[in-house]
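Box S1 | Example of a co-folding query
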Amino acid sequence: MLLAIDCGNTNTVFSIWDGEEFLCTLRTSTHHARTADAYFTWYSTLVQHYGIEADITDVIIASTVPRVVFNLRIFADRFFGCRPLVVGKPDCLLPVPPRVDEGTVPGPDRLANAVGAFDRHGGNVVVVDFGTATNFDVVAADGAYVGGIIAPGVNLSLEALHQGAAALPHIDVSRPDKVIGTNTVGCIQSGVYWGYSGLIEGLIARIKAEYGMPMKVVGTGGLAPLFDQADVGFDAIEDDLTMHGLTVIHRYNKDNGSV
Ligand SMILES: Nc1ncnc2c1ncn2[C@@H]1O[C@H](COP(=O)(O)OP(=O)(O)OP(=O)(O)O)[C@@H](O)[C@H]1O
Ligand SMILES: CC(C)(CO)[C@@H](O)C(=O)NCCC(=O)O
Ligand SMILES: [K+]
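Box S1 (continued) | Returned holo structure for pantothenoic acid
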């Protein structure tokens, strides 16, 4: 069985893939100082709690935080006796190499999204991923990741407003019915929700115009369903897209003898 690990700047997600389906998805906050033993304590407690029979033989990691990879490598070696595949490292093959400016290191989460989206939808796709950042990942006709857009994430924007303006409280994003807020919270909610909806809609339109060919738009990440309620232009919402991409990359490396 495969353990797929997606480390974002905010959260780290583990999913167990049995070859046909994900048996579970476990989430913890990302901390570079977490040790291999701490990962295992957390992981084994939850696996036991859910009554999952997991026989992990392989591990794949996509990490946007380079420092966490060190302890995750020890975790894979110590508890599962395997050398993990790390997306973005030279020994982890991708079905199609990215086409970006020389010297650019695309986020491993974006590479996994591109592979996952191509596997499910074919090429000419844009993935909109709501995480710490909101990133738009463009996938060409042949499945190559060819760049996109990085915008500040929704929760980062809310946090920045709270940090930078003494009288503004911290709030959670939600969809206000009205655009014109009549109280402070309503005003912030409108700015972030309707502001972000405009950003997403506008950027999708500009990407499509520049790309010049019809494209599918796939939303992923925790806040995708919330923004779908504003009809921003998603053709599909898939919350497991990054993880799906990791399983496809793992299979590709198995088939091509690199693991
Ligand atoms: N209404 C909401 N308001 C604020 N946050 C929300 C809301 N609904 C979901 N979320 C957040 O979405 C997150 C899940 O999103 P996702 O895993 O895609 O990104 P992330 O873990 O925050 O970012 P990263 O992957 O960059 O670490 C949850 O941690 C949750 O806090
Ligand atoms: C944009 C984020 C932060 C999104 O998780 C991540 O993919 C990242 O750190 N990327 C590196 C830069 C790039 O993708 O071009
Ligand atoms: K993510």
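The first strand starts at residue 2 and ends at 7. Residues 91 and 258 are 7 Å apart (CA to CA).
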